[in-house]
């Protein structure tokens, strides 16, 4: 993990190269986190991957988070790893909820990190975060015809009815 | 009908026509309910798309409705062959949020159980993979040893699988009398068993021909795809989180990281086999160095008080009541903690909002990420090699679907 001053240096350098990309930094529990504007997230990730002395070349994990009731509501979290120095760096892109039926949008990083393919599909599947430029953005774990974004905080647990013989006639589309 | 034209058409057909076939989800060689949509040109795989989600049970969502200690049994049911690793990833993440240090004895006990678990997982992999390739007797030999490990788990934790042994702060119980002897007897025997497996498979012409030179993906491509664990090490990259960023007590032990050279199916098999030997070494060292002392931290706000105190101490009773009903509260924050599971980097992201329930639990499951490399392994190979590649990939669908 970069230490707190190191993290500030990284944030400053990214902002020099891409003004306005880094919004804030967080350093807690010994883990470093850059909060990056959702529009500039690819710039920041590319900078972190390609800049000499940084070289966070391995993307461990991508996941969506719902911060309801906080604003901005959604976040996409990238866990970067430099395998030579064994340093992890978290990049977090906050996303506003556009409301109604619109989905929050962010650029896909599959071009930079092919490993993000399945994981972005997972974030789309569960949070309804739309990744612009993803080659194959479909649901991955939920059924293709599923309606709703089950891991959003306002989706109730038990929102999906459990089918038994006594209620399968009521479940739409299940019992023909 | 012009017979010559008909023959010409027949000859042309396999070369031009793409056939799309569906493999699974209920196919014994897919190691669970994985469905593959395979495009074939003749017998050659042109393209492949995995379809999963058939055993999705919404564990991550369910965890948000459980207090932290009640979420432990949930998370260990994701990847049902590496439950100790799931528990460690989750408990370790919560401990980091609480900034809690666990006793040395707990660290050693966790390592012992995790390495036994790694042996167990690799044994199931070896048995089922060899079965896929036609070596049926391997299955029985591997499951014989696996059962001994499960017996040991039953001895120390009371359960054979899904043990809920790790707690936030340590482990639930100290190991019983006789456990150490049992593990030592097992460790004495296991290396010779691995030699036997090797003797069976390494002289099996069918096994060698089906694994050697099959499913090669370059190291660079594997890293791009985020592949970790034995698959990456078989391609020659000595990357192991146990050595790279030692969690628990892994820094205290001497062990080697086996790596392969070309990264074909045979290397993946060799790497896992050697890992089993190294796991035995780690367990033996952990037993030798097992420190005395408490097996769980002494923080009464997080850890259940010992049972005997409940009948004498009012305070202990109150703590017990609060912990069992509400659970403990965790200060707000976000943590990512990764351990080296038998399949690669198993990461757990936990967000706490200050209440007694996690606000988000996300597991970076190694099978899920590794599965992306299956397409690269299988393209331009035969259908029969697809089975071999899938077996050597070792996906656990419970972990993929969560």
Topology:
The complex is a heterodimer of chains A (176) and B (402).
Chain A: H1 4-17, E1 22-28, E2 31-36, H2 41-50, E3 58-66, E4 74-82, E5 87-95, E6 105-107, H3 116-127, E7 130-132
Parallel strand pairs in A: 2-5, 6-7
Antiparallel strand pairs in A: 1-2, 3-4, 4-5
Chain B: H1 3-16, E1 18-23, E2 35-41, E3 44-51, H2 59-63, H3 68-75, H4 83-98, H5 104-132, H6 136-157, E4 166-167, E5 170-171, H7 179-202, H8 205-211, H9 219-224, H10 230-234, H11 241-244, H12 265-288, H13 314-325, E6 333-341, E7 344-352, E8 358-364, H14 366-370, H15 374-378, H16 383-393, H17 397-401
Antiparallel strand pairs in B: 1-2, 2-3, 4-5, 6-7, 7-8
Feature tags:
heterodimer, A: 176 residues, alpha/beta, five-stranded mixed sheet, two-stranded parallel sheet, 7 strands, 20% helix, B: alpha+beta, three-stranded antiparallel sheet, 50% helix, globular
Task: Characterise this structure.
Chain A has helices at residues 4-17, 41-50, 116-127; strands at residues 22-28, 31-36, 58-66, 74-82, 87-95, 105-107, 130-132. Chain A has 176 residues and is α/β, with parallel strands linked by helices. Chain A is elongated, with a radius of gyration of 19 Å. With 402 residues, chain B is of the alpha+beta class. Chain B is built from 17 helices and eight strands. In chain B, α5 runs antiparallel to α6 and α6 packs antiparallel against α7 (179-202). The A-B interface holds A 28-31, 33, 57-61, 63, 65-66, 77, 79, 83, 86, 88, 90, 113-115, 117-119, 122, 126, 139-143, 150-151, 153, 155, 157, 160 and B 52-53, 56, 58, 60-62, 64-65, 96-97, 99, 223-227, 239, 244-245, 333-336, 338, 345, 347, 349, 351, 359-360, 362, 364, 368-369, 371-372, 401-402.
